[in-house]
Amino acid sequence: MAQKTWGSIVKTGAGVLHGWAGVAAALCCGGSLLPGTAGAQTPSPLAEWQYSAGVPLRAYFMPEAPKWQTALGMGFSFQPDYDGASTYELVPAPSFDVRYRDLAFFSAGEGLGVNVFHGRNYRIGLAATYDLGRKLNDNFRVTSRRRVGPTAEAKIFGEYVLFPVVFRLDFRQALGGGYDGYIGDASIYMPVAGSREHRFVVFAGPSVTFASGGNMREFFSVTADQSHATGLPVFDAKGGVRSVKFGISATWFFHDRWFVNGTGAGNHLLNDAARSPFTHEKTQGTFNFTLGYLFGGALP
Question: Looking at the domain assignment, is residue 300 inside a domain?
């Protein structure tokens, strides 16, 4: 009896997950329906996978992608002033996502790139992207340290679907500008709720961010000059695991091609990022809201 009961539960659960993943693929058929990107800070407290949520599931369920697929949107982001800040700000967050088949893409979150290798349950690619750095504002903890300028980045990434879970790994190397070194993310996420009838889907999953010494020093170190100017102790941040995150992304098509996307994430700084004298809060959160329109591709 117990075996039959558990077998029924597993079978039912697998069917539900398959349905949610199918809904996710259908809703993402016109491109990744992504949160907007704000110019206040990068890396964002959002988990990195949230900028491409659902994309690998399209190929898993839909063997032939539309030739062109575009999503445009505008919204806002409520986010920390900087990594480690205790203060928050509300900033505009435009979004765009243009894809050509399963070959190339141009989006606010993923940058300009190509899927060099791709199949039913994987994609590996290269992209040119950016880090907007850190602006100076009225917050003492920021003005007491040097501004970090925008930085061009070269990114390599890979995604693999072990149904219904999506594994993602990315590595971004600075090409000059605000910081040296690299930063990357390892992520796992999956659809956790959805309805084809009501045209909505929810993804959730954790992410780990790691960074080189060059990246960590630029954002979290206190130099001797800064120490003299501020009274803060000298601090030399080392490379390693920078933070852990957990994100939730929800998309709802409420009228034909119009949709809303709500995205939230918690970010907890670790190691030298947490120990830095510039870090006021180790745990932060962010919320993005986007109103968008889908061009091209099949209707969800």
Answer: no
Greatest CA separation found in the chain? Answer: 73
Whether residue 229 is contained in a domain is answered as: yes
Task: Dump pLDDT digits (tens) for 83-116.
Answer: 888 999 999 989 899 999 889 999 988 899 999 9
Torsion angle of the four alpha carbons 174, 178, 183, 188, in this order, in degrees rounded to the nearest 10: -110
Q: Where are the beta strands (DSSP E) in 178-272?
A: 182-195, 200-211, 240-255, 258-269
189 or 19, which is more confident?
189
pTM of structure = 0.84
Q: Which helix (H) or strand (E) holds 13?
A: helix 2-27
Contact 98, 106 (CB under 8 A): yes
Exposure on the CB side of residue 293, measured as CA atoms within 13 A:
1
Mean pLDDT across 49-72: 84
The CATH number covering residue 98 comes to: 2.40.230
- CA distance linking residue 291 with residue 36, whole number of Å: 9
Q: Are 295 and 30 in contact (CB under 8 A)?
A: yes
Q: Which of 43, 50, 139, 51 is nearest to 83 (CA)?
A: 43
